[in-house]
Every structure is written in structure tokens, then in C-alpha cells.
Amino acid sequence: MKARSLRAKSTDAERRLWQELRSRRLMGWRFRRQQPIGPYIVDFVCMEQHLIVEVDGSQHQEACRYDASRDAFLGKRGFVVMRFWDNEVLTQTVAVLEQIRTTSLLRRPSPPPSPAVAGEGVS
Q1: Spatial distance between the Cα atoms of 62 and 48, rounded to a whole number of angstroms
Q2: What residue spans define the domains of the chain?
Q3: pLDDT digits (tens, 9 = 90+) for 8-37
């Protein structure tokens, strides 16, 4: 399926999560939905953080082998993949967003140290 077609057929959980992630609503990070990466289309991705968020439905249990090879492909390209069940997104949206926020913050590179000011150890 193509990304555009998948966007049009989003599940309730995907639509709910997109409302929270779109327009830089989460920590100012830009998420894209149904984004192609290599041969795969991911539900949501923040390229700045190399973070992918997948929303899996109950029918998804049969796809574990596919998910493992897909996650390995994405991991080799520096992405972290987070997975949530549909019902988690629908019933625990705040907790899901907090997990995404925490993971994003842990992945954020620390800023370089500020240069020392004269008189503070600099001669």
C-alpha cells in the first residue's frame, strides 16, 4: 500500500495520536505520518530524533516476524522504534505521549559545553 492510501485509511488510534503529534505539538518536534523509509512505511516518524512510533492493532499479532526484520532494518539506520497497541493509544493517550516524550529526550544529544569565560580558569 502506498503512504497516501494508508493516511486515508488511518485507524481511530492513529488519528488520535496524530492529533497529538502534528504541527510540532510534542516538544516542538516535527512528526510525519505514514512516511516511507526504505521499503517500509512507518506510522509516525520524527527525523530529528530518529524516532519511529508504530500503532499496532489486534490483527497485528501475526506480523511479529515481519516486524522484527523491519525493526532490524530501521535500527541499522539509526532509528528507535516504539510500538503501542491501538487500545493503549485510545485509553491511555497521556501515558503514551509521556513515553514518546521520555524516549525523545533520552535520544536528544547534549549541547556542547559553553566556552570558558576569561577569569574562569582561562589564562
Answers
A1: 31
A2: 3-106
A3: 568 999 999 999 999 888 888 999 999 999
Give the Cα separation of 86 and 95 in Å (integer). 13
User: How would you classify residue 111: left for phi > 0, otherwise alpha for psi between -120 and 50, otherwise beta?
Assistant: beta
pTM of the model: 0.78
Residue type, 41: I
Name the CATH superfamily for 3-106: VSR Endonuclease (3.40.960.10)
DSSP letter at 53 equals E
Length of the chain equals 123
Task: Using the structure block, give the residue that is written with the C-alpha cell 512505511.
Answer: 41
The answer to whether residues 44 and 33 touch, using CB atoms and an 8 Å cutoff, is: yes
* 62 contact partners, CB below 8 Å, separation of at least 6: none
